[in-house]
Amino acid sequence: MMKNNNSLGFTLLELLLSIAIFAIVIGFTAPLFYSFQVKNDLDLTVNTTAQYLRRAQILSQAGKGDDFWGVMIKEEEIVLFKGESYANRDSGFDEIFLLSRAISLSGLSEIVFEKLTGEPQNTGDIIFSSGINETRVIKINEKGIIDYEPI
């Protein structure tokens, strides 16, 4: 009598080869995913900051609450606030956007818009940088024009 030796499993060599191929694919895609995530965080931060600046300007022009409106940009968050300054704000009206740790900021940190005219009290650039050498800039001029290139 002959014995049939057909096994229905995988050999150790086949299993190790599959794991090695999977590890190589993960090794190549992980840095690309990280780069994509950081770029997305940078673009989201710039777009949200521009929206907060425009919202503060519109609220000031509309005379909402008969007060100034502004934006404070800190390392961890961006805050839309009501008041003549961030230190003297009415914190009950704060709108907060949390920032990614991969994004670093420089330039203007507090921008307050005048009531009714919507002109900023200070002008300049807000510079956003990421860990993958990407940089975005929002420019605010004396007329209150908020300029940046959306991606």
| Total strands | 8
Unreliable sequence segments:
none
The residue-averaged pLDDT reads 90
Cα(first) to Cα(last) distance is 74 Å
* Fraction of residues in H or I helices: 25-40%
In the CATH classification, which architecture applies? Answer: 3-Layer(bab) Sandwich
Q: What is the CATH topology assignment?
A: minor pseudopilin epsh fold
Q: How would you spell out the order of helices and strands?
A: HEEEEEEEE
Identify the strand order in the major beta sheet.
3-2-1-5
What is the beta-strand fraction?
25-35%
Structural class: alpha+beta
Q: Compute the gyration radius: what is it?
A: 26 Å
Q: What would you say this structure looks like, in words?
A:
This protein is an alpha+beta fold and 151 residues long. The protein has a single domain (13-147), classed as minor pseudopilin epsh domain (minor pseudopilin epsh fold). Helices cover 34% and strands 26% of the residues. It is built from one helix and eight strands; from the N terminus they run H-E-E-E-E-E-E-E-E. The strands form two sheets. The chain has a four-stranded antiparallel β-sheet with strand order 3-2-1-5, with helices on one face. The protein is elongated.
Short recap of the structure:
The protein is α+β, with helices and mostly antiparallel strands and 151 residues long.
Name the features:
alpha+beta, minor pseudopilin epsh fold, 34% helix, four-stranded antiparallel beta sheet, elongated, 1 helix, 151 residues
Blueprint of the fold:
Elements: H1 12-62, E1 69-73, E2 77-82, E3 95-98, E4 103-107, E5 110-113, E6 124-130, E7 135-140, E8 146-147
Antiparallel strand pairs: 1-2, 1-5, 2-3, 4-6, 6-7, 7-8
